[in-house]
C-alpha cells in the first residue's frame, strides 16, 4: 500500500483534470502564459506522477504574444473516448477578451503529438467533454450568465459536438447556475454518464477562500439537473483560515480498476490562512457513493493530509522511478520541468548535450509581456535552495543577466549582474505593482562565471550570489494573494539588453533544485 502526502502535485498545478485508460491515469493542469503548455502526466497509483509530454508544445499552435501573467491556458479537461485522447481548454487574454477562446485538440498517444487546435464557437471558460453511449460528444463549459440575477453569476451550458464537422451543432442548453443562491463563479463543470444518469460536478464560490464543490444529476444530458441537498459537498471555507489548506474545489472524478472512486482538485496551503506562494496545487480525495450521490472525503469532510492507495507498482516500490517533484539535484536542459514565457524554451534558448542552456540576450525586460529570454521552474517546496552557474564573459555593456523569483511582469524579485563601462554591477531588485526598489547595488569583480540563486525558507526569499546571502524579500509581497492573479511562484534565469540591440549570449549550467528533506515530505510554508 502507498501512503502519500497531499498535495500529490506540489507547486502551481491548478485546475486538474484526470482520466483512466486501463491501468494508467492521465492528468493535465493549467499553465497560463508558461510554455510548453498543459503538461500531460501519467501515473499508475494516483500519487506519483511523471510528465510524459505537453499538449501545447509547438511554437505557433496558439498565439501567446502579448498575453500577460495569469492569462493564457485555463482549466483543461482530458478524456479518452475509447480510441483517442481529447483535451479541451481555453486561451484567455484578459486585456482583449475577443482574442483566444475555447478549443479542442486530440492525440492517439497522450505523450503527443497533439493536433492543431480546433476553435469552438462557445463563450466563456472551463470547457469539458463527455461521451454518450451512442457515441455522441457533448461539450460543456462556463460563461457569465446572459441574464444575471447578481454580479459574477455564471451558467453552465451543454451542446453537441460533431466529430465529422468538427464543430458545435444543434441546440445549446443552459443546465446549471450554481447550487447556492447568490453564488459566484459556478465553473469547472464536468459531466459523467453513470448507471443511466448524468452527473454534473462543478466548482463555485471563486477559486479562492470560498471555493467549493457541488453536484447535480439528471436523467438526460440536457437536464433538468437537480442539485444534491448536501451541496456544497466539499469545501474548506467553513473551517476558517486556520485550517492550513484553503480554497478546495474544481474537482474531477475517476474510477480505479478496483472499483474505488477518487477525485483530484485544487487547493492552497496557506500557513497564515491568506498567503500561498506555492500557488494552487493538486490534491487527491477519496470518494464513495451513497444513495446515488458521490460523497467526498467520507467520514472526514475535508481534504486528507495523507492519502492511502491499496495498490502499487513493483518498480516504484523498488525506487527505480521517481515522480517530477521528488527528483532533487541537477535539472538538465532536457528536463520536462523547464518552461519559458509565451514561447517554448527552445524558441529562446539552445539545449546543449552537456545539459546546459545557451541563452541569447533579448531586448525585452522582465516587465514586458513579450518574448523574454527566460527559463524557469515551478517552486514546488517552501524550503528549497536553487542555484545555477552563469557565464558572464561575453556579456556586453548595458546587458543584464540574473536569477528571478517571478510572480508576474508587475511583481518579481531578482539578483542580477549588469555590465557597465566601469565593470560589473550586482543588484537585488524587488518589483512590486510595477514599482521597482533597489535593495542592493554594488560594483563587483567576478570570475568568468558566477553562481546565482535563491534560498527559500517559508516566507523568505534570500537571493544568493556565489554562496553569499543578500537582502531578502518577503514571499507574502509576491504571491497571488498579495498581487492578484492565479499563479504560484517560478524560479528562473533571464538575460536582457534592456531595450538596446542585443549583442551576446550567456551559458546557464549546473542548475540545482535542492529542497530540504522535510520539505520533500511536507513542503509547507
Automatic annotation (TrEMBL):
Q: Entry's InterPro entries?
A: ConA-like_dom_sf (IPR013320), GH43_C2 (IPR041542), Glyco_hydro_43 (IPR006710), Glyco_hydro_beta-prop_sf (IPR023296), Glycosyl_Hydrlase_43 (IPR051795)
In this chain the Beta-xylosidase C-terminal Concanavalin A-like domain maps to 336-508
Enzyme Commission number(s)? 3.2.1.55
Q: Which residues form a coiled coil?
A: none
> What GO terms describe the biological role, i.e. biological process, of this protein?
carbohydrate metabolic process
What residues does the record give for site: Important for catalytic activity, responsible for pKa modulation of the active site Glu and correct orientation of both the proton donor and substrate? 126
SUPFAM superfamilies registered for this protein in UniProt: Arabinanase/levansucrase/invertase, Concanavalin A-like lectins/glucanases
Q: Which keywords are on file for this protein?
A: Glycosidase, Hydrolase
Q: Which residues form the active site?
A: 15, 187
Origin: domain of life:
Bacteria
GO MF terms listed in the record are:
alpha-L-arabinofuranosidase activity
Which family does the similarity line name?
Belongs to the glycosyl hydrolase 43 family.
Fetch the PANTHER family from UniProt. BETA-XYLOSIDASE, BETA-XYLOSIDASE-RELATED
Q: Provide the protein name.
A: Alpha-N-arabinofuranosidase
Amino acid at each position: 500500500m502507498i501512503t502519500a502526502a497531499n498535495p500529490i502535485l506540489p507547486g502551481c498545478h491548478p485546475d486538474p483534470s484526470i482520466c483512466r485508460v486501463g491501468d494508467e491515469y492521465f492528468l493535465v493542469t493549467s499553465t497560463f502564459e508558461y510554455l510548453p503548455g498543459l503538461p500531460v502526466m501519467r501515473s499508475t497509483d494516483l500519487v506519483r506522477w511523471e510528465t510524459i509530454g505537453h499538449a501545447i508544445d509547438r511554437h505557433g499552435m496558439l498565439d501567446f504574444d502579448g498575453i500577460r501573467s495569469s492569462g493564457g491556458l485555463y482549466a483543461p479537461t482530458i478524456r479518452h473516448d475509447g480510441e483517442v485522447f481529447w483535451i479541451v481548454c481555453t486561451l484567455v487574454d484578459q486585456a482583449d477578451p475577443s482574442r483566444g477562446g475555447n478549443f479542442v485538440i486530440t492525440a492517439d498517444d497522450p505523450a503527443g503529438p497533439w493536433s492543431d487546435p480546433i476553435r469552438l464557437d462557445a463563450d466563456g471558460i472551463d470547457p469539458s467533454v463527455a461521451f454518450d453511449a451512442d457515441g455522441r460528444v457533448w461539450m460543456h463549459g462556463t460563461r457569465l450568465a446572459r441574464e444575471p440575477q447578481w454580479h459574477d453569476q455564471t451558467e453552465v451550458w451543454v451542446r453537441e459536438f460533431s466529430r465529422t464537422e468538427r464543430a458545435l451543432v444543434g441546440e445549446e442548453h443552459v443546465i446549471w447556475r450554481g447550487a447556492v443562491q447568490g453564488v459566484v463563479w459556478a465553473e469547472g463543470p464536468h459531466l459523467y454518464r453513470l448507471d443511466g444518469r448524468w452527473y454534473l460536478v462543478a466548482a463555485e464560490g471563486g477559486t479562492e477562500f470560498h471555493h467549493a464543490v457541488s453536484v447535480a444529476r439528471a436523467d438526460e444530458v440536457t437536464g433538468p439537473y437537480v442539485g444534491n441537498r448536501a451541496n456544497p459537498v466539499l469545501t474548506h471555507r467553513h473551517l476558517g483560515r486556520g485550517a492550513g489548506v484553503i480554497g478546495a474545489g474544481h474537482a474531477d472524478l475517476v474510477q480505479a480498476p478496483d472499483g474505488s472512486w477518487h477525485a483530484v482538485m485544487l487547493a492552497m496551503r496557506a500557513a497564515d490562512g491568506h498567503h500561498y506562494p506555492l500557488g494552487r496545487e493538486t490534491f487527491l480525495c477519496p470518494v464513495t457513493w451513497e444513495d446515488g450521490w458521490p460523497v467526498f472525503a467520507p467520514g472526514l469532510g475535508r481534504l486528507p493530509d495523507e492519502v492511502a492507495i491499496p495498490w502499487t507498482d513493483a518498480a516504484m516500490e523498488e525506487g527505480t522511478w521517481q515522480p517530477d517533484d521528488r527528483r532533487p539535484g541537477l535539472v538538465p536542459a532536457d528536463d520536462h520541468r523547464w518552461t519559458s514565457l509565451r514561447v517554448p524554451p527552445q524558441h529562446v534558448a539552445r539545449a546543449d548535450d552537456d545539459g546546459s542552456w545557451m541563452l541569447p540576450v533579448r531586448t525585452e525586460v522582465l516587465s514586458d509581456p513579450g518574448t523574454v529570454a527566460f527559463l524557469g521552474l515551478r517552486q514546488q517546496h517552501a524550503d528549497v535552495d536553487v542555484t545555477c552557474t552563469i557565464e558572464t564573459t561575453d556579456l556586453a555593456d548595458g546587458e543584464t543577466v540574473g536569477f528571478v523569483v517571478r510572480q508576474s511582469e508587475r511583481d518579481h524579485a531578482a539578483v542580477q549582474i549588469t555590465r557597465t563601462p566601469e565593470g560589473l554591477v550586482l543588484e537585488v531588485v524587488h518589483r512590486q505593482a510595477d514599482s521597482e526598489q533597489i535593495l542592493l547595488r554594488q560594483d563587483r569583480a567576478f570570475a568568468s562565471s558566477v553562481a546565482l540563486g535563491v534560498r527559500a525558507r517559508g516566507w523568505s526569499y534570500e537571493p544568493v550570489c556565489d554562496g553569499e546571502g543578500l537582502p531578502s524579500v518577503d514571499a507574502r509581497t509576491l504571491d497571488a494573494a498579495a498581487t492578484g492573479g492565479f499563479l504560484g511562484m517560478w524560479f528562473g534565469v533571464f538575460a536582457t539588453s534592456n531595450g538596446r540591440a542585443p549583442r551576446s549570449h550567456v551559458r546557464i549550467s549546473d542548475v540545482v533544485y535542492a529542497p530540504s528533506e522535510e520539505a520533500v515530505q511536507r513542503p509547507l510554508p
